[in-house]
Amino acid sequence: MDRVAPRWDDVEVGTRLPELRKEATTRTLVQFAGASEDFHEIHYDREQAERLGLPDVILQGYLKKSYLAECVTNWIGSPQRLRRLSAEYRGVDAPSRQGRPQSFTVRGRVTRLWQEGGEKLAEISLEGRDGGGRLTTPGLAVVALG
After folding, report:
1. Which of 22, 11, 20 is nearest to 124 (CA)?
2. Residue 33: which CATH number?
3. Which domain holds residue 63?
4. DSSP letter string over 44-78?
5. Which residue of 16, 70, 92, 105 is 20 to 30 Å from 4, comparing CA positions?
């Protein structure tokens, strides 16, 4: 299904983006480690993670940031419209396991609209939340609107 990108005239401060819910598994973490070359053991070795005081292996920060980007680009219709993306890592997120599902949910809301350099821009406040609803990964994006 092709999404119609939002247009400048249809967006206002407070516009909410469609929520994105992901369930990363340990397989997801290993695949992302290979793609990003982030082979720190806390992302795939449960014993090492526990030795370091973590309850389980944890999602990579950049994996969570990629989920923020996915939420925004799904809404805007194209990664080429993403002008800026930032994320803060304030908490750990565990992978989903059989019998213990975990999710990572991204919500976004337009917080500012302006024009600059011939582009119509929107700032989007992002929230990455764990399965319990705790904010673990706040972020900010700037996109160009058509």
Report:
1. 11
2. 3.10.129.10
3. 8-145
4. T-HHHHHHTT-SS----HHHHHHHHHHHHHHHHS-
5. 105
Number of structural domains (the chain) is 1
Share above pLDDT 90 across residues of the chain, in percent, rounded to a whole number: 90
The model's pLDDT over 79-127, given as tens digits with 9 standing for 90+, comes to 999 999 999 999 999 999 888 899 999 999 999 999 999 999 999 999 9
Which residue from 99, 114, 121 is spatially nearest to 25, judged by alpha carbons?
Answer: 99
Angle (nearest 5°) at CA 20 between 4 and 113 = 55
Torsions phi, psi for 64 (to 5 deg): -65, -40
Q: Is 1 a domain residue?
A: no
Nearest CA-CA partner of 121 in 130, 110, 129: 110
Q: Please tell me the pTM assigned to this model.
A: 0.94
Q: How many residues does the chain have?
A: 146
Residue 96 in domain: yes
**What's the mean pLDDT in 33-48?**
93
